[in-house]
Amino acid sequence: MKELKIFNSLTKTEESFVPINKKKIGMYVCGPTVYDYPHIGNARPLVIFDVLYRLLKKIYKSSTVTYVRNITDIDDKIIDSAKKSKESIEELTKKVATSFHLDCKYLNCLEPNFEPKATEHIQDMIRMIENLIMSKHAYENEKHVYFSVSSFKEYGKLSNKNSEQLIAGSRVEISKYKKDPLDFVLWKPSEENHPGWDSPWGRGRPGWHLECSVMGEKFLGKKFDIHGGGLDLIFPHHENEIAQSRCANKTDKFANYWIHNGFVTFNKEKMSKSIGNIVTINNLRKNFNGQVIRLALLNSHYKQPLDWNERLINESQNTLNKWYGQYEKLDLEEIDNDALNPLLEDLNTPKYITQLHSLYEESSKGNKSSKIKFIKACNFIGLLEENKKVWQDFKKSMIRVDENFISKKIKDRNNARKKGDYKLADVIRKELENNGVIIEDKQNQTEWKYK
Ligand SMILES: [Zn+2]
Fold it and tell me: What distance in Å separates the CA atoms of residue 70 and residue 211, rounded to the nearest whole number?
């Protein structure tokens, strides 16, 4: 097998992946803050790092890879959101975490080996803060504890910014308890009606960045191989994780490879609550099979921005309608190493999908071995694994295609027939069929109905 190359955000170059210990590979990915239903922007890292996890397990043997993805269940966003929806914090976090787990299943993501919750590791967080205060990397001020950014010379290396740029371009929190505007919170006091834990600095709660530093170390050690997340986490979240962990553990690295996926827009616009254009995964669950969403997410390279729109979903739906024609359940068949090459090139999923298209063409010629090759390659990235009946039943209940689209296609088909181009007419009929529409020619008009 060729070696795995991966783009490292820390060095800004594509590098050969060399694990610290081949028999013990660690990957940490920042999980959701469970204050609201996860959206398509959150689905992207789930699916991308799931493919990377599958790939690492294939290269280094399953049992050697440890994948950790946390759940942030204490955060200001959660407190605010629970207040707005008049739910208890426990009700809210439980509800969203349950929905998140359904999302992961729906997207056919393998479960991580560990899924720690922040609230289960508060004592370790307190210990890390004490350590940072002792070594003068942190200070207390009226029940608040801050990390002193000036104490860590390499701060800004990941996001590639100097301190002026960091202050100018960031959403640094303003606070009278800080000595320096870039300093960030490790611990803060909790009001009486808010969740809080006893600590040497009074009753309070940890800062978000600290949670990941502590949980990463707890399950993967002071230094591990891969740390992943969305591009929006580079600053301040990941920059701060590095500062805390390296200063507390006195290491030269926190993770060796930092991998970030690009942003997701919706119809070329940024998704935001105020515009009201957030596509939540639990909403997609009602209208599409998860395989459709998974394929659509893998269609772009993970580093590129991804625009979510109807055309993308339709394309992915049509491709899978076609591919499921070749469906067969295989038992534990291993993929050929050669087929993995596009993924070894910095997880090039679009190239891998192009390869799937050609494997499909081969397999549809009726050759049994190419059919198996095609199915194995689909299964490897978590596609074509749905039972065929489940897939077909879902197709029937899926969202209806637009009626304007149908009438246009019928018009195109009739024009083709008038010109005697029966081949094209047939292609259009099949396309409609793939979209769940059946047409019938009656005397001099064409009628249609949903399947
Ligand atoms: Zn994190």
Answer: 9
Q: How many Cα atoms are found within 13 Å in the side-chain-facing hemisphere of 221?
A: 15
pLDDT single digits (tens) 158-213: 999 877 777 775 666 778 899 998 999 999 999 999 999 999 999 999 999 999 99
Which residues of the chain fall short of a pLDDT of 70? 169-172, 395-402, 451
pLDDT of residue 274: 76
The pLDDT of residue 399 is 52
- How far is ligand 1, taken at its centre, from the CA of residue 179, in Å? 25
Domain residues for 433?
403-450
Considering the entire predicted model, what is its pTM?
A: 0.87
Give the integer Cα–Cα distance in Å for 36 and 313. 24
Could you tell me the distance, in angstroms and rounded to a whole number, from the CA of residue 153 to the centre of ligand 1?
A: 21
Ligand 1 mean position to 237 CA, how many Å? Answer: 6
71 CA distance to ligand 1 centroid (A)?
Answer: 9
Q: Which residues of 194-203 are buried (b: 16+ CB within 10 A; e: fewer)?
A: bbbbebebee
Query: 291 C-alpha vs ligand 1 centroid, how far in Å?
Result: 27
SS3 label, residue 94: helix
Q: Are residues 86 and 224 in the same domain?
A: yes
Ligand 1 centroid vs 238 CA: distance in angstroms?
7
Separation of CA 246 and ligand 1 centre (Å) = 15
Asked if residue 281 belongs to a domain, the reply is no
Domain of 103, CATH number, reads 3.40.50.620
- Please tell me the distance between residue 29's alpha carbon and the centre of ligand 1 in angstroms: 7
Tell me, yes or no, whether 387 and 421 share the same domain.
no
Report residue 204: phi and psi, to 5°. Answer: -170, -160
Q: Say how many Å lie between the CA of residue 230 and the centre of ligand 1.
A: 10
Number of domains in the chain: 3
**What integer pLDDT is reported at residue 170 of this predicted model?**
60
